[in-house]
Amino acid sequence: MTAGDWLRKVTSIFQQAGIEKAADEAMVLLCHVLKLGKAEIFARPERALTGSELTMLDELTARRLRREPSAYIIGHREFYGLDLLVDHRVLIPRPETEVLVEAAIEFGRSWLARNERTITIADVGTGSGAIAVALAMHITSSLIYATDTSAAALEVAAANISKCKLGKRVITVQADLLQQINGRVDVIAANLPYISAQGMLQLPPEIAGWEPVAALQGGAGGTEVIGRLFQQVPEKISRDGAVLVEIGEGQEDDIIPIIGRCLPGCPITLIRDLAGINRVIKIEVK
Q: Are residues 58 and 182 located together in one domain of the fold?
């Protein structure tokens, strides 16, 4: 069987199984097994697959048909131009979280232009370390604390930090939100669980059946964990700093009053994602 034949066959199988973006999903598996890029496969669709390659592809196809996410199957995911290690211990990084990273980089660079010292950042609920690593790569004069309650998640974060050679600037901390951070930091960036109990019942099987529930569910209304974060923020954020938090669709109306109580008088900005949804709340601390 050729690479092109296999792609057509498995794309059809995935389509019949109701897997979204079936052609892309099949391509991900083929690229992984052949250790080739998409362009190389398109350039040589007549390439014959060996018996061992077909065996491996059959195994990976079966896993995907059980709705295991392809990122877990191949062991990595691209995020903000980085190739990050991921597995079942952590949430798979999403494109919408890049909105948070972009906003944090913009603020961090403007902060550095006003100050003559290293900027300190807390990435709260770091998971795979995606946010912490991306910020460290793009804000070179930074010291970042990557916190998570899960020791297993921090193992994945540590692997990504090591892979990107950032061990001296990104420090993992097992903690409930900000509790183990000593002193104050200049930026708090957080992608915390924000799916409501009702929303959890509506998740696709790739998420509901495979990704860690603790990284998804934000309590009955979805904003409980974010609310607890803001209760800790006043004792942990520096003047002239900023807090940036990813939120779910429509949650700003519930979260903004919490911010008003915890950080009264601080300017609040809502930042939209590519779908036009308010995805990030930025609070500048004066």
A: no
Both 120 and 250 in one domain: the answer is yes
Specify the number of domains making up the chain.
2
> Which domain, by its residues, includes 256?
97-284
What are the tens digits of pLDDT across the range 133-152? 999 999 999 999 999 999 99
Q: Are residues 141 and 270 in the same domain?
A: yes
Q: Packing angle between helix 130-138 and helix 151-163, nearest 10 degrees?
A: 30
Give the model's confidence band at 286: pLDDT under 50 very low, under 70 low, under 90 confident, else very high: confident
Query: Could you tell me if residue 83 is inside a domain?
Result: no
**CB pairs under 8 A, 24+ apart, for 220-224?**
220/196, 221/196, 221/197, 221/254, 222/194, 222/195, 222/196, 222/197, 222/248, 222/251, 223/194, 223/247, 223/251, 223/254, 223/255, 223/258
Average pLDDT, the chain: 96
- pLDDT tens by residue, 76-93: 999 999 999 999 999 999
| Encoded tokens for 11 | 């794309």
Tell which of 66, 87, 107 closes a domain: 66
